[in-house]
Amino acid sequence: MYTEKVMDHFTNPRNVGEIPDADGIGEVGNAKCGDIMKMYLKIEDGVVVDVKFKTFGCGSAIASSSMATEMIKGKTIKEVLALTNKAVAEALDGLPPVKMHCSVLAEQAVKSALLDYSKRSGVAIPELEGFE
Ligand code: FES
Ligand code: FES
Q: Could you give the domains of the chain?
C-alpha cells in the first residue's frame, strides 16, 4: 500500500522539530481526520535557509511534511510557492488515493508559514492573496 519512500520518511522523518526564532510559522489542520501540522521557516534574503516541522497526524502526513521540508530547503520564496501537494506525493513515489489529502496538508502548512512570514516581515507575497 505504501511506497518505500513513504515508509522511509515515516520511520526516519527529516527536519523534525521547532525553530524557536522562526521567521514564519504555519499551522494547519484537517477537519476530516483531525490531523494537525506545524511548519517553521527561517528565511534570509528571500531564501528558506532552515525549515522544521511537527505533525500530529498519520504516517502519510508525517512522510509528506518530511518530504516537503526537503523540497523547500535552500529554495527561494518563489520556488517554494510553486510546491504543490502533487509534487510532494510524486516525490514520495505516490500516496494511496485516500491519503492524498495528507500531502495537501503539507502544501498548506508551507503556504501558511509563508503567509505568517509575510505578515511579520512586511514582505508582500501577492501569490498568497486569498490563501488562509
Ligand atoms: Fe486515527 Fe486512523 S484516524 S488511526
Ligand atoms: Fe489526515 Fe493523513 S489521514 S493527514
A: 4-120 (3.90.1010.10)
Check if 128 has its Cβ closer than 6 Å to any atom of ligand 2. no
Predicted TM-score of the model (pTM): 0.95
Q: Which of 28, 30, 53, 107 to mutate to test the pocket of ligand 2 (most atoms within 8 A of CB)?
A: 30
ipTM of the complex: 0.74
Strand partners, 56: 36
Residue 58 appears among annotated catalytic residues: no
- Specify whether the CB–CB gap between 15 and 63 falls below 8 A: no
The residues near 90 (Cβ < 8 Å, ≥ 6 apart) are none
* Per-residue pLDDT reduced to its tens digit, 87-121: 999 999 999 999 999 999 999 999 999 999 999 99
How many angstroms is it from 73 CA to the middle of ligand 2?
A: 23
